[in-house]
Amino acid sequence: MARNRFWDVDRIGPVQIGTHRDRHGREAHAAACTAPGCDWSADYMSRAAAELAARTHRCNPR
Question: What is the superkingdom listed in this entry's lineage (predicted)?
Fold first, then answer.
């Protein structure tokens, strides 16, 4: 049975934000752009930081 790794998943424009547990068991938040050709993603310790990064992200596909 597969377990859910991400929960509380939201979308801001092309960026998806999800909450997960990092390798130390702490709650972390990941933001990743889903636009074709854009490989941007980052982990943050607070939800507010992840949302701010998602709102200010500008795609630069190559």
Answer: Bacteria
For the chain, the C-alpha Rg in angstroms (whole number) is 12
SS3 assignment for 19-48:
EEECCCCCEEEEEEECCCCCCCEEEECCHH
Residues 22 and 11: their CA atoms lie apart, in Å, by 21
How far is it, in rounded angstroms, from Cα 23 to Cα 51? 22
Length of the chain: 62
DSSP 16: E
CA proximity to 53, closest of 61, 43, 19, 25:
43
What would the pLDDT profile of 8-59 be if each residue is shown by its tens digit?
Answer: 999 999 999 999 998 898 999 999 999 998 989 999 999 999 999 999 999 8
